[in-house]
Design goal:
Layout: H1 3-12, H2 21-36, E1 43-49, E2 57-61, E3 66-74, H3 77-84, E4 91-97, H4 98-107, E5 113-117, E6 125-129, H5 130-144
Parallel strand pairs: 3-5
Antiparallel strand pairs: 1-3, 1-4, 2-3, 5-6
Helix pairs in contact: 1-2, 1-4, 2-4, 2-5
């Protein structure tokens, strides 16, 4: 599904998420588009457990003594399986449209980032941080309330 179609689905489903359609269309979708256009693919595979919860991985930065919870997104099912290193029958890789992944990153407070593993050797990923995404969406939402004073 093309990016514009993915965004339209989110806009059409806005009421199901408890968000006004106009807010998704005018504030959230443009930010999701901005981030999605920085990525190489329109769909990624995310590891899920049998209850369909996404697998969260805690990673640590020893230099800053900080931990964060991330979701890894993969280009192929094989990449997801390879990344696990050992087979876990309770996990499966499910395809998720990129716009939906980014929307859920914004919505899921327990997730700090999604790391999109673009390289086939799984050595490089593009990290999108929830805080950065959320800040830009908040700015867009605040901008909706402002109208120009000199409308002719």
């Amino acid at each position: 599904m093309k990016l514009e179609q993915q965004l339209k689905v989110l806009i059409d489903d806005a009421a199901n998420y408890g968000v006004p359609t106009g807010v998704v269309e005018l504030a959230i979708a443009p930010v999701l588009r901005l981030f999605a256009e920085q990525l190489q693919h329109l769909e990624y595979y995310v590891l899920q457990n049998l209850e369909e919860d996404w697998v969260l991985t805690t990673i640590a930065n020893p230099q800053s003594n900080q931990e964060k919870k991330v979701i890894y997104a993969f280009v192929t099912v094989q990449d997801a399986a390879t990344f696990q290193k050992k087979t876990n029958p309770d996990l499966m890789a499910m395809p998720i449209p990129v716009a939906q992944l980014l929307f859920w990153l914004f919505a899921l407070k327990q997730v700090d980032s999604i790391i999109f593993m673009e390289a086939q050797d799984l050595s490089q990923g593009v990290e999108i941080e929830r805080d950065r995404l959320s800040d830009l969406i908040r700015q867009q939402i605040q901008g909706l309330g402002k109208t120009p004073h000199n409308i002719a």
